Amino acid sequence: MKKIFSIAIVTAIFLNLFLVSAYSTSAKAAVVIDGYTGEILYSQNCDERLPMASTTKIMTALLLCELGGDLSKQIVTTREMVTVEGSSMGLQVGDTVSYHDLLYGMMLSSGNDAANTTAIALGGSVSKFVDIMNKRAEDMGLTNTHFVTPSGLDAEEHYTTAYELALITKEALKNENFAKAAASKTARLCYGNPPYNRTLTNHNKLLKMYDDIIGVKTGYTKKSGRCLVSASQKDGKLVIAVTLNDGNDWQDHRQLLDLGLSLIKAKNFSPKASEVLLNITNGEQVSLSVPSVTLNISDNSKVNYLIELPNFLYTPIKAGEQIGNITYYCNDSPVCEKILTVNEDIDYKENKFVQLFEVFKSILFKI
Questions:
Q1: Exposed/middle/buried for 212, CB within 10 Å: 0-12, 13-18, 19+?
Q2: Counted domains in the chain
Q3: Is 54 a catalytic residue?
Q4: Are residues 215 and 175 part of one domain?
Q5: How far apart are CA 233 and CA 216, in angstroms?
Q6: In CATH, what number is assigned to the domain containing residue 227?
Q7: Do the domain assignments include residue 76?
Q8: Considering the chain, what percentage of its residues have pLDDT values greater than 70?
Q9: Is 358 a residue whose pLDDT tops 50?
Q10: Is residue 224 annotated as a catalytic residue, yes or no?
Q11: One of 54, 98, 109, 151 is an active-site residue; which one?
């Protein structure tokens, strides 16, 4: 048995609209989203298709984490893998390198050689891996994103939008290996022929400037301009900012992240007692214990919850026994789940219909 309920929230919409409209960036396109729900908190041409340079590697790195299996697996590079222009983690033909080090080579050094090597190692060829990238974007419901290269080098029909790049990042940050790499200021790696130790430094200088920054990725080509994806995690909140073609991205991102954080507030929710009554087999009802929850959401968020319970219960029932669960949704994204328990012991009692039947049966047999 499932019951869906909506929760009305008293909002401060006009104040938020004023705060958001009062801010602008130097970017051609920008967006800030709630990193848990995907809600847009700020937007500026966020649906315009634009090149995204090396922020492309967010998808490439995510697929490496999802498809690579054991990241300690090592491969030997070929000429096809490492023959690529632009930024590099320093791979050469015949190097032994692990998937782990390719991940960090992409996220810290923005290595086009790391992205190319990943594509060929996982897809068999760059073109086949790009097909996997586009299929993953399609599975995410993205309609304004199309990949041509795994690295982000300029190519016709290689584009995304600020909003969809933010959604890719939201998905990527759910992956523990990706999130750890994206947040790393430096990494001590071992690769080469023969492998030797070396240290890579993250190009994302926001990581060194602010404690709340947890990534994510820089990018630049002459065609795309400066591109940046950043994320801040603070006080139970997660916000993701994206700017495309922004000459003042470092400063813009700090202000965008602060704006996003300010628009998310802690709100308490608890269902009404009458909404969590459950029938038991003797025809009575039992009340359930539902813990209140605190959700970090914006004033514009739509919150509802789904209560899942059995159709009825058999007695006896012990206090504290788990009966069902309640899931809270913010803008249709699940954000919190709690179990439902019985408030008190309930002794065994026969169903009233069973009792009547027994009385009738005894009378019948006496006759």
A1: middle
A2: 2
A3: yes
A4: yes
A5: 12
A6: 3.40.710.10
A7: yes
A8: 84
A9: no
A10: no
A11: 54
